[in-house]
Design a protein that fits this description.
Layout: H1 2-23, H2 27-41, H3 45-64, H4 77-89, H5 94-113, H6 140-148, H7 155-170, H8 174-178, E1 185-186, E2 192-193
Antiparallel strand pairs: 1-2
Helix pairs in contact: 2-3, 3-5
Length: 204
């Protein structure tokens, strides 16, 4: 009976050690899995490239503050706070820091679902408050000069004027405008356009 108990305890320790080893996930391996997940999910190449770039920069910063890159499970909220302080000490712009925090938060949310971490270290850490300032705008004289620039007797001139007026009246992004097709434009009523390739992947 004693021997059986000894064997049982040894088996339990072996199982526990195996589970603990499997739970250890280095940062770079988890990032590779996350990027693959984004690609399978069908995110745009631009979004995937954004995650690749931001997470690479974040990994470099984590290394500089001696964060536990070898084991994601050891990451805690204070590591994220140290990361922000590190960026601030280097003189990084608030906009730069705020662009990296969401990428890192999304990555750790993925790790939480995969059980590589027991909690998202970004929980309780908010983005930095940025001061929003209105940039210089065109005067009426400058706008008139801009709109009068295209020559309306040529195709290129008409095209350029149409592009400027569409951007001004709809507020769509440049990439959304360049992705428009003939069937996306309607002249019924007051006229309308349908943006099929919006940033959030929902047509509007």
């Amino acid at each position: 009976m004693k021997r059986r108990n000894t064997v049982t305890k040894a088996s339990a320790r072996l199982v526990l050690q195996t589970e603990t080893t499997n739970q250890i996930k280095p940062y770079h391996e988890a990032v590779a899995e996350f990027i693959k997940h984004c690609q399978i999910k069908g995110l745009s190449s631009r979004t995937v490239d954004f995650y690749v770039k931001e997470l690479k920069q974040t990994r470099r910063a984590f290394a500089e503050i001696d964060a536990p890159l070898h084991n994601l499970r050891q990451f805690q909220t204070h590591h994220i706070e140290q990361l922000i302080e590190h960026h601030q000490a280097l003189g990084r712009a608030v906009s730069t820091i705020n662009s990296r925090l969401p990428a890192s938060r999304t990555f750790f949310s993925f790790c939480l679902r995969k059980e590589y971490v027991t909690a998202n270290p970004h929980d309780g850490v908010n983005q930095l408050k940025a001061r929003h300032e209105v940039g210089p705008t065109f005067t009426k004289r400058q706008l008139k000069k801009l709109l009068d620039a295209p020559g309306l007797t040529t195709f290129i001139g008409l095209r350029d004027l149409t592009i400027m007026l569409t951007l001004a009246h709809t507020g769509i992004r440049l990439t959304e405008l360049t992705s428009l097709c003939v069937q996306d434009v309607s002249f019924d009523g007051k006229g309308s356009i349908t943006v099929q390739r919006a940033k959030n992947r929902y047509a509007r």
